[in-house]
Amino acid sequence: MADGKLAEWITVKVATALVGRAPRTIYEWIENDRPASRMSSDGIPEVLSKAVVRVEPTVRRGRPRGTPTHR
Q1: pLDDT digits (tens, 9 = 90+) for 26-59
Q2: Count of CA atoms in the C-beta half-sphere (13 A) of 18
Q3: Which residues, listed in sequence order, are joined to residue 69 by a DSSP beta bridge?
Q4: Sign (positive/negative) of CA torsion 3, 55, 48, 50?
Q5: How far apart are CA 66 and CA 32, in angstroms?
Q6: What are phi and psi of 28, to 5 degrees?
Q7: pTM score of the predicted model
Q8: Parallel/antiparallel/unpaired status of strands 37-39 and 9-11
Q9: Which of 33, 22, 27, 12 is nearest to 62 (CA)?
Q10: Cα–Cα distance between 32 and 43 in angstroms, integer?
Q11: What pLDDT score does 58 carry?
């Protein structure tokens, strides 16, 4: 990323900064096979950067309708 271009495969930390979501959200997307993902040679989960950018606008923010608040 030294030349200003986004790498093809990015870490969850970079993905959270890219789309403004929490790390747990990115991990949930990975668990649900939303963006393409893989494990790096170091055992760190990575996601396909262009897939994260495509998935983000399709996922609604907040608590699903009908889910009670915890009080």
Answers
A1: 999 899 888 899 999 999 999 999 998 888 777 7
A2: 24
A3: none
A4: negative
A5: 21
A6: -65, -40
A7: 0.71
A8: unpaired
A9: 22
A10: 19
A11: 72
- The predicted pLDDT at position 53 comes to 85
Mean pLDDT of the 8-28 span: 93
**Would you tell me how many other CB atoms lie within 10 Å of the CB of residue 34?**
18
Tokens 């030294």 locate to: 2
pLDDT at 10: 95
Residue of 5, 7, 3, 19 lying closest to 49 (CA atoms): 7
Domain boundaries, the chain: 9-58
Q: How far is Cα of residue 6 from the mean position of the Cα atoms in its chain?
A: 15
Residue 50's CB: how many other CB atoms inside 10 A? 13
Round the CA-based radius of gyration of the chain to a whole number and report it.
14
